[in-house]
Amino acid sequence: MERSQDLALGLLFAGLGLAAAWQAGSYQGAGGTYPMVLGVVLALCGALVMLRAARSKTDAPRRLVDVPANLVKALAAGVIYVALILPLGFYTASVLLMLALPPMLGFRRPLYTAIVAASFIALVWIVFSLVLNKPLPAELWAASRLGG
Amino acid sequence: MDFLLNAVSAVMATGPLVAMLGATLLGVLIGALPGLNPVMAIALLLPLTYSMDPLVALAMVAGIYNGSMYGGAIPAILLRIPGTPASIATTFDGFPMAEKGEAAKALKIACWSSAIGGIASALALMTVGPLLARATLHFGPAEYFWIAMFGMASVGVMVGSDPVKGVMAAVLGLLLGTVGIDQLSGQARYTFDQPWLLGGLDLVVVLVGLYALPPVPQLAEKCDLKGLSAAQLRLASVPFRKGEVKGLLPTWGRSSLIGIFVGILPGAGGNIAAFLSYNAAKNASSEPESFGKGNPQGVAAAECGNNADNAASMIPALTLGIPGNVVAALVLSALMIHGLQPGPQLFHQNPVLVGGFMIEMLLTSVLILLVGGAAATRIFAQIQRLPGVLLVPSILVLMCVGVYVINGRPVDLWVMLAAGAAGYLLEKLNVPLAPIILGMILGPMAEQSVRRALLISRGDPVELLTRPISAVLAAATLAMILWPVMKALKRRRDKKMSENNA
């Protein structure tokens, strides 16, 4: 398992290095030489990792993910959350994430979840909006009310 | 030393004092929570510091750094779960002490040892730092190029267990550092016609993604639904016995020196300092067999060693602009956020800021004694009753708000997610992440230095090696890269010889 993972990793870095070096070829003067050298060195490092993996006599197991289901849930929640921040507003999207993700991961205490979510979002609001006065993506409900 | 005296009054203002106290408390709390670490906390804190006074921002960094290095000892002693990687060695004797009913005593020794290690390290920073800064005033572009290369090589080779992957990560970091407009020619590189890439990849955004995001899916995978019970966290206050402090003094002295030395070396971190200090204490002991079975000297050595690494790791960062570890890289980022360029000029241009940061590292080490007492530790231990599963969305929200407020650009959130996914996978594939960040920081400095040096020498690369200091630095860089190769060849030769003999 470790051998095939390292082969893929080496291939990825070798490809990345070659692509970077090829792209640097279109830059003029010393501004192109430096990234081209780096691209070639990266490709060589990737090739070395591949070569070492190919010649390795051992193939120890190496798990990339311990609990795939939970990883997928967390990843999906993270992506959906980031995608919703702009259309729904920062605080609305954050409350939804804090209420939805714990039950998705098997936490069955809704009141506890709600109290932690409310306290945490209140803390974030106090620090970022009230004290630091940082502009965050506006809430959909507030924008629609203002817009009539 | 005048700059330190001038800095005292600036640090003794309300803002830095409150920031130090609050951040040390927060640091202990973060260190006490397994899954959270000082790098993650400081990475999350950086975006917040944009609008702050630099001395207040650095006070928070110092407090979180020193506080969390001690905080890691709390779960290490109570549960044999190291709160931070640097507290792994603390579990060896801390947990057996807790099993014998001496948890409170182990925590007290950890608290005192952390404070003493931190104080010694801050004093080293105050004395060695200015001397080194004065020496580096004679450096030209060629020397700076080789210093950057030496820093990269040592971090790439020493961090992680696979030097080839370390060097590969460092080169990736250097390459990421070239994204954006080239400062010397004005040419756009790797921007793919995206206007947001013209200024380059935002270091803090990538840093938060690479370091703060991977623990989130790991916490989700662990899926802790219960937290800890109150019974597991019961503690009582225990005073030091007569002569006990005197018995710990040699260990504190030895571990402080080891931690300071390790801190100055680029690439070596608090965990290495803790292990070396632990081994040194064991070797010096008249009863080495008692180590690992609840010997208080073991806890003292590990905790003093890992905190003695903290301020010392800032010596190359502040004087040369070369971060020896990721926290030092974060401190450099904090300085850059405030428009300050780390390196010898910093001591001349902003003496109050540099001196102030040194004093803050010292004071936050002293504060550990105040906030890390038995009563406070009892409170910090209670935070572990919070189910880990609730931390997953909380950290995600904190990361997103922190990253968004840097530039107010939604695209940064996607960059952070992409960096986080890459960081999660690369860590699992045994590729160290620290060289990537160091490459991003040192890359522009290395490129500009080498191009300036070549301009001065009219394109002759031999000039990079003709000055004595640059030649020594180049040889040291080469030795650093070749060292693991030689070691591997020797290992192979020894193995072959033993096979032949058999």
Describe the protein in words.
The complex is a heterodimer of chains A (148) and B (502). Chain A is an all-alpha fold. Chain A has two domains: 1-64; 66-147, no CATH class. Chain A is built from six helices and no strands. In chain A, helix 4 packs antiparallel against helix 5 (110-131). The radius of gyration of chain A is 24 Å and the shape is flat. Chain A starts with a helix and ends with a helix. Chain B has one domain. Chain B has helices at 2-11, 14-32, 38-45, 54-71, 73-79, 88-99, 103-135, 141-158, 163-176, 203-212, 215-222, 244-264, 270-284, 296-312, 314-320, 326-337, 344-349, 351-371, 374-382, 391-407, 410-428, 434-456, 463-466, 468-501, and strands spanning 180-181, 188-189. In chain B, a hairpin with a 6-residue loop joins strand 1 (180-181) and strand 2. In chain B, helix 9 crosses helix 22. Classes of the chains: A mainly alpha (148), B mainly alpha (502). Chains A and B meet through helix 1, helix 2, helix 3, helix 4 and helix 5 of A and helix 9, helix 11, helix 20, helix 21 and helix 22 of B. Chain A: It comes from Stappia indica. Chain A: InterPro entries: DUF1468 (IPR009936). Chain A: The chain crosses the membrane at residues 33-54, 75-99, 111-132. Chain A: This is Tripartite tricarboxylate transporter TctB family protein.
Beta-strand segment tally of chain A: 0
Helix content of chain A: over 70%
Residue share in helices of chain B? over 70%
Provide the β-strand percentage band of chain B: under 5%
Number of discrete domains of chain B:
1
Overall pLDDT of chain A: 88
Largest sheet of chain A: none
Largest interface: A-B, 67 and 53 residues
Radius of gyration of chain A: 24 Å
Low-confidence stretches of chain B: none
Cα separation of the termini of chain A = 59 Å
User: N-to-C terminal Cα separation of chain B, in Å?
Assistant: 63 Å
